[in-house]
Every structure is written in structure tokens, then in C-alpha cells.
Amino acid sequence: MTAYFSKLLRLPDNYKYYAAAISVVILVASGFLFVSDIEEIEEMYIFIPFLYLLILPGSMWPILISFLLLSAYYPSLENNELSDVIEDGLELVVIATFATIMTYFQQNSLDKMRLFRNESYTDYLTRLPNRKKIMKHMFALQKKISLLRSLSST
Q1: What is the mean pLDDT of the chain?
Q2: Is a pLDDT exceeding 90 seen at residue 40?
Q3: What is the largest CA-CA distance in the chain?
Q4: Fewer Cβ atoms within 10 A, N terminus or C terminus of the chain?
Q5: DSSP 8-class letter at 72
Q6: 121 has pLDDT over 90
Q7: pLDDT of residue 154
Q8: What is the DSSP letter of 122?
């Protein structure tokens, strides 16, 4: 939880990566220590990669997490059919991979949008602010001046 709110809590930039790594170790170890039925594992572990998408959007962590979570199926291999284990494992990996790739492309398009917005405010040759940027600054200054005038008149 603290990894998700690390910016608001002003924690170091690498904090969420450390928290994610520690949580992965705990999840994999708990899968080996507390052996569960395959259906319980499927229901418990299907949403865990999505949590890593929220914490680390645009990274490949959820795919890694889904492969590491497959180790929780290892103790239950002898009690269940191999086809059930393969089905649940593929479901986990494919869903996490699809969601991760979509989030990755979404993050890239947001970065490009920010770049294009910034470029639209500057002249390409001179790198000076263009009329749109100047008007935006003038409007912000007018708001500040009117706010100061209203505060000084009271």
C-alpha cells in the first residue's frame, strides 16, 4: 500500500521497487509454506499482477510476477491433474501479459502526448514560447492579479 502512495508520502523513488520485490518474495514463500487447493490459488493469485500494474504502470513487473506465482502451483501438482494446472497457469500468465502490454502502450502514448503538448507551446526553430504559451501565461497572470486586487480591496 505504501508503494502505491510513495509519491504522496515523499518516499525515495526506488522505494516502490523495493516494496514490490519484498512482496514478491513473501508471496512466493507463502505459496510454498501454505499449500492450498488449486482452485483457491487461482482465485487468490489472479488479481495480484493487476496490483503491480497499479504500483508500477508501464513496467514488465506483472509478467514476472505471474511467472513467479506459478511456483505456488508446484506443491499441488501431485494432487491435481496436469491439465488443470496448465490451464490455470496459462490463464494467469496470458491475462497478466495482455494487461501489461496494454498499460505499457498507454503509458507510452501519454508520454508522447505530453511531449507533443510541450512542443506545441514552443517554436521549433527558435525554441521560444509561441503565442499559445504566451497567452496561457497572460491568462494565469490576469487571474493572479484579479485575485490580489480582490484580496487587497477587502
Answers
A1: 82
A2: no
A3: 81
A4: C
A5: G
A6: no
A7: 66
A8: B
Q: Which amino acid is at 79?
A: N
Which of the residue ranges 37-46, 110-119, 124-133 has the most confident prediction, judged by mean pLDDT? 110-119
Amino acid in position 91: E
Record the cell numbers describing residue 71, joined without a space: 511456483
Q: List the one residue out of 62, 45, 64, 58 whose CA is nearest residue 102.
A: 58
Q: Phi/psi of residue 129, each to 5°?
A: -60, 140
**Residue 70 CA from chain centroid, whole number:** 21
All three cell numbers of 29: 514463500
Q: Are 76 and 44 in contact (CB under 8 A)?
A: no
Note the helical H segments in the chain.
Answer: 15-33, 38-45, 48-55, 61-69, 82-120, 131-153
The residue assigned the cell 514552443 is 122
